[in-house]
Design brief:
The structure holds three protein chains of three kinds.
Chain A lengths: L27 H11 L1 H23 L21 E5 L17 E3 L7 E4 L8 E7 L11 E6 L6 E4 L7 E9 L10 E6 L3 E3 H6 L14 E3 L14 H37 L1 H16 L2 H11 L9 H28 L2 H8 L4 H37 L11 H10 L6 H35 L1
Parallel strand pairs in A: 1-9
Antiparallel strand pairs in A: 1-10, 2-3, 3-6, 4-5, 4-7, 7-8
Helix pairs in contact in A: 1-11, 2-4, 2-11, 4-5, 4-7, 4-9, 5-7, 6-7, 7-9, 9-10, 9-11, 10-11
Chain B lengths: L12 E12 L2 E13 L4 E5 L6 H8 L8 E10 L2 E2 L5 E2 L2 E2 L5 E4 L13 H13 L3 H14 L5 H4 L9 H12 L6 E5 L7 H18 L2 E6 L2 H7 L2 E6 L2 E7 H6 L4 H8 L40 H5 L4 E3 L5 E3 L21
Parallel strand pairs in B: 3-10, 3-11, 8-9, 9-10
Antiparallel strand pairs in B: 1-2, 1-4, 4-5, 6-7, 11-12, 12-14, 13-14
Helix pairs in contact in B: 2-3, 2-5, 3-5, 5-6
Chain C lengths: L1 H32 L14 H11 L5 H13 L14 H36 L4 H15 L2 H19 L12 H31 L2 H8 L4 H38 L5 H11 L2 H29 L1 H4 L2
Helix pairs in contact in C: 1-3, 1-11, 4-5, 4-7, 4-9, 4-11, 5-7, 6-7, 6-9, 7-9, 8-9, 9-10, 9-11, 10-11
The chains are: A alpha+beta, B alpha/beta, C mainly alpha.
Chain lengths: 454, 346, 315
């Protein structure tokens, strides 16, 4: 035991600092923010959401490419694909004199996007030939591909393909024909790597180079950069994603805001007035809830006179609001009923507080938590609905971009150009995920405090 | 540290140096900071204190009811009939909870399963611990309900908790807790959620059952009236520590700690001769995130001294079983207030 | 006492249900009649014969209110009308042919979603903050954020690859007919709801796990397995059952995409076709039918809930 002196036993002055007696108290929102900050997932989601909003609003200012502009040289290119093009002379018809044969099916010269020239030796027993082109290698079960040309004279042994050539690897199949023009079995196949080329005139036309630039045939130039690739019409995917974001988020955030607002209004009145009015109001809300959601979304669209294949952003917004407000109103009403019974309302009334004060100062701030969480969860739901409807062609239709309609287009070429599907789907997923996690975090942060208040 | 003189009678339950803390988002809370007490057969120990002083955590940690990821027993031991039970629920091959020790809780409305009948819930410990068949257990459950003075016990046993009133539910809980004839019944604020008249009935029931079965009772409460009525021994807790402990008469009539005085002064009393102006204790309990170096009661104690904020006091024994943890009892302290009881010749 | 309560409860729900279906029918009717331009006067009604039939049957030359009464009268008799675009094919027949397919798909999906949701949700609550929790919750997060059409397309792709790998058709990629055809579409359809139910079950379980009566059960020394079954599960499952009704609704309507992608001849796919062809009677009839079906399912679920939670019966 340490030595104690008489001084130790002198009375303690009131107000003297005593170690560890109390903590600074925090307001409801400060406490909720503290809880939210600790929740790492929610914090990351918050940053994601802010990032997405920036992407949507400020994005087009930074990346100024027109989402509707088509870069026909780079159709369906994945991101990071090479975008070099060789400068070549303008197209001149192929002179086939002087070609040597005897080497079988071969490419003549450099295969480019301008033309692919083939020569072959007549297949024994062939009365004619047919040429197919495929982007997949030929296998036992595979079809030959797109028919490109048919010759009934087996003396024709050259072919120049100029149709819709892209910078890919093609497989050309040479199939012999029988006496009645039927396909015979012994085909030949050749693998051809096509190089992208453009002429000086075309390049200037598309704004890729200045007129005055000093370019020779054989130089390489860079085509437009598309960081996320292009879609099947050559449109820049990043620009389209930004434009789509505007549509998807406009509906995804606008609709929830509106229907939650209406729900709060409706629910507060029902909860506050109570009695018969409350019963009738809630019964009506129940009816609206019973309407089959997706069916009525579609019905609304038709009702506004938008046909299939047309875009209805505004009707979709209206439909969402009309169909989804009841859930919020029920929630808010429940909150109001709960709050009304709380002690502090009675206490306030006893102190003479007017009704308006009660509503503004006590009821609304305490419902804000629930309302905030509801909005945050309603947003991904709305985004999903829009994507879903656009996907089945009942929402936003091409050419208006939205992440849902972009996914719809992307699925059609899922096997060959997956990036057209992956990016919009990814954006949908990340957005939905971020809002869901944020909603979780908000609910945990706000709810814990509410539970402690009991 | 002064220790209690050895007692020849073996104690039913002996708790030494129990300390429990919790990890929360704001830091680590030290809820129980070194608690010692014991319980004798057939006797009632009351643990008194305000909300948040750690009395519930103390008994719940003994029963293994504190979830151990956020919670942690940092030290101490609890011996039931000589066997260590802290951190274990099965001792000597036997389950302690529900069988050796029974427990009832504060709010009977939420403490019972809403989707099971009362009879099923009372029958459950019998099926689990005594291996009774369902029929036998249910019949015994009805008998237990009668023992708890619930009318129409057979009909009631088939009903659900929401069909009972608060007082009846608490009786049912008591029936459930004593089903396996435990040697100790822990009652955690059993009457706090009930009306005053019902309170008296429940307490009477507990006393009657104690006489019948000979079980010991640990009674947790913040109500001194309940203590006066039921307890043989009293432990007063504040900020995670026991500040005064003794037989009920000692603690009431010869209070030796300022906090006990404060509790008594704040207690309303029906007896006109004892009526006084209600004096609430000013201030609030300390923040247990960073517990005070000195005595936890310093900020609210009218007799606080310099030493009180710097160091914790030690237990001073005034009689064999009555001690107080307060610097006022130190031989060097000049101040000996009249309201408190001091050792002869201090 | 509980017996008669149950019947009154069911009766009340049924009456409410009828009113609800009436409301749905009315809303549908007015939504369709809001379409600008008379749907008959364009060439949707393909032949003169159909047009004459429809004119007579629905009184399309009469004022709206009369049409509404006729419409309601038809509905009460169970007559949903004749298709606009398919001569003389009754909407009832269309529904009769295609709805069972959707129903089976939906029921399988619901079973899958409910069983999975309860199981995974309970597991994450029991193994909270340990690896099963993390794994399951990660999958759940994927489940709620990846759009269903993407899942459907990708799963089809996977099936193709798996079939290629094994050289035979392990599972059919599209179409309908055998049990094998139903498995993958039902799983895909139920996935989103299963993820949602898992989360719900998880939070419900977590709440129950820390509830007072579970604490009492522990204080009674009840072994963990029994606590899980009789105390926790029974109470935690209640919110899940509550949302089961609306979940069935979500699954049935979500079936559209799955039916489209997997070429399943269900009512959803038919509905989409009807919308694309603006076949109004089919659209209206299907909507009212679906609405009635969902109302009925919700009543069934409510009654089920009443069996499990005795408090509800006493309303």
């Amino acid at each position: 035991m340490t030595d104690l002196s008489l001084a130790d036993f002198q009375p303690l002055e009131p107000g003297q600092e005593i170690h560890g007696i109390s903590r600074p108290s925090q307001s409801y929102w400060q406490d909720a923010w503290a809880r939210l900050k600790v929740n790492k997932r929610a914090l990351v989601s918050l940053y994601l959401v802010i990032g997405l909003l920036l992407f949507t609003i400020a994005g087009p200012w930074v990346w100024t490419v027109d989402p509707a502009q088509q870069d026909l040289d780079q159709v369906s290119r994945p991101p990071g694909a090479d975008r070099n093009a060789l400068i070549v002379a303008d197209y001149a018809p192929w002179q086939t004199e002087g070609l040597s044969f005897g080497e079988g099916l071969k490419v003549v010269g450099d295969p480019t996007t301008q033309a692919v020239k083939l020569k072959w030796d007549a297949i024994p027993g062939a009365n004619g030939h047919r040429i197919y082109r495929n982007i997949f290698p030929i296998g036992p079960e595979r079809s030959y591909g797109i028919p490109r040309a048919e010759f009934f004279d087996n003396r024709v042994v050259t072919f120049e393909d100029r149709l819709d050539l892209k910078a890919l690897t093609y497989y050309y199949v040479l199939v012999p024909l029988g006496p009645r023009g039927e396909l015979l079995d012994n085909y030949e196949v050749i693998e051809v790597d096509v190089h992208r080329v453009t002429t000086i005139v075309e390049a200037v036309d598309r704004g890729l180079i200045e007129e005055s630039a000093n370019l020779q045939i054989g130089d390489e130039i860079n085509l437009d950069w598309h960081p996320f690739g292009t879609d099947y019409l050559g449109r820049d995917l990043l620009a389209r994603l930004m434009a789509g974001a505007r549509v998807s988020l406009f509906i995804g955030i606008g609709a929830p805001f509106l229907f939650v607002l209406f729900g709060v209004f409706y629910g507060s009145i029902a909860g506050f007035v109570g009695g018969r009015v409350d019963q009738v109001m809630m019964r009506f809300a129940d009816f609206v809830v019973a309407l089959p959601f997706l069916l009525f979304m579609i019905l609304f669209k038709i009702s506004f006179g938008i046909g299939p294949g047309e875009s209805g952003v505004f009707p979709m917004l209206v439909a969402l609001v009309v169909l989804m407000w009841p859930a919020t109103s029920r929630l808010v009403r429940g909150q109001i009923l709960q709050i009304r019974e709380q002690g502090y309302i009675h206490a306030s009334q006893l102190l003479g507080a007017p009704t308006r004060y009660l509503i503004l100062r006590h009821m609304i701030p305490n419902t804000l938590g629930v309302v905030l969480v509801t909005i945050t969860f309603a947003i991904p739901s709305a985004i999903f609905t829009e994507a879903f409807l656009s996907f089945i062609g009942m929402g936003v239709a091409p050419p208006t971009p939205s992440w849902g309609s972009m996914s719809n287009e992307g699925i059609k070429t899922m096997l060959t150009t997956p990036h057209e599907l992956i990016f919009p789907a990814l954006f949908i997923s990340i957005t939905v995920l971020a809002f869901n996690l944020l909603g979780d975090g908000l609910r945990d942060a706000l709810d814990a405090r509410m539970r402690n208040q009991e | 540290m002064n220790s209690a003189p050895a007692n020849s009678k073996e104690l039913l339950l002996e708790v030494k140096d129990l300390a429990v803390e919790f990890d929360t988002y704001g830091g680590t809370v030290q809820a129980v900071r070194g608690v010692n007490f014991s319980v004798e057969e057939g006797k009632t120990l009351a643990i008194v204190g305000e909300s948040g002083c750690g009395k519930s955590v103390t008994v719940q940690s003994m029963m293994g009811l504190i979830p151990m990821p956020p919670g942690r027993i940092t030290s101490g031991s609890a011996r039931l009939k000589g066997h260590e039970i802290l951190g274990r629920t099965i001792v000597n091959g036997k389950e302690i909870r529900g069988s050796e020790i029974g427990m009832i809780f504060q709010d009977p409305m939420t403490s019972l399963n809403p989707t099971m009948t009362i009879g099923d819930q009372i029958a459950e410990p019998l099926q689990v611990h005594r291996g009774y068949s369902y029929k036998k257990a249910f019949a015994e459950a009805i008998r237990l309900l009668e023992m708890s003075k619930i009318p129409e016990a057979a009909k009631r046993a088939r009903q659900y908790p929401f069909e009972f009133s608060g007082g009846m539910l608490q009786r049912a809980m008591i029936a459930m807790a004593i089903a396996c004839k435990p040697s100790i019944l822990i009652a955690d604020e059993p009457t706090t959620a009930l009306d005053v008249t019902i309170q008296a009935q429940i307490l009477d029931l507990l006393q009657d059952l104690q006489k019948e079965t000979g079980m010991a009772i640990i009674l947790i409460t913040h109500d001194l009236g309940v203590v006066a009525r039921m307890a043989d021994e009293v432990a007063v807790m504040y900020a995670g520590k026991i500040v005064e402990h003794g037989m009920v008469d000692d603690v009431f009539y010869r209070s030796a700690h300022p906090y006990t005085l404060g509790l008594k002064d704040a207690m309303p009393n029906n007896d006109p001769s004892l009526q006084h102006e209600l004096k609430p204790i000013e201030g609030s309990p300390p923040d247990l995130f960073s517990p005070p170096q000195g005595c936890g009661y310093t900020a609210r104690c009218p007799y606080a001294m310099q030493i009180c904020s710097k160091q914790q006091g030690e237990n001073t024994y005034l009689t064999e079983h009555h001690f107080s943890r307060c610097w006022l009892h130190n031989s060097a302290s000049p101040n000996k207030p009249d309201q408190l009881y001091f050792k002869e010749g201090a | 006492m509980t017996r008669s309560n149950m019947w009154i409860f069911i009766l009340k729900r049924l009456v409410q249900g009828i009113f609800t279906v009436w409301f749905i029918a009315t809303a549908t009717f007015f939504a369709m009649h809001n379409v600008p331009g008379d749907p008959l006067l364009n060439d949707r009604a393909t032949t003169e014969a159909i047009r004459a039939n429809l004119q007579a049957k629905y009184g399309l030359d009469k004022p709206v209110t009369t049409q509404y009464v006729i419409y309601l009268g038809n509905l009460v008799r169970g007559d949903l009308g004749i298709s606009f675009t398919q001569e003389n094919r009754e909407v009832n027949d269309i529904i009769r042919d295609h709805f069972p397919v959707s129903a089976i798909l939906g029921i399988l999906a619901v079973i899958f979603a409910a069983a999975g949701g309860v199981l995974w949700g309970a597991l994450t609550a029991i193994y909270r903050n340990r690896w099963p929790d993390y794994v399951i919750m990660f999958l759940v997060i994927l489940g709620i954020s990846v759009p269903s059409f993407v899942v459907a397309a990708i799963s089809q792709l996977l099936l193709v690859n798996v079939n290629d790998l094994f050289g035979t058709t392990v599972l059919p990629v599209a179409g309908w007919g055998t049990v094998l055809h139903m498995l993958v579409p039902a799983m895909v359809l139920g996935l989103g709801t299963m993820a949602y139910l898992t989360r719900l079950m998880r939070s419900s379980m977590l709440e129950i796990v820390s509830s007072d009566f579970v604490r009492t059960a522990k204080a009674k020394g009840v072994p963990p397995a029994r606590i899980f079954a009789k105390h926790q599960l029974r109470n935690a499952i209640l919110p899940v059952i509550t949302v089961l009704g609306p979940s069935i609704a979500a699954i049935t309507t979500g079936g559209f995409v799955v039916e489209l992608v997997f070429a399943i001849p269900g009512l959803g796919r038919y509905f989409v076709q009807a919308v694309q062809q603006l076949d109004y009677t089919v659209i209206m009839g299907t909507t009212v039918f679906y609405g009635a079906f969902l109302v009925f399912m919700v009543i069934v679920v409510d009654v089920l809930y009443g069996f499990i939670d005795p408090r509800v019966r006493m309303e």
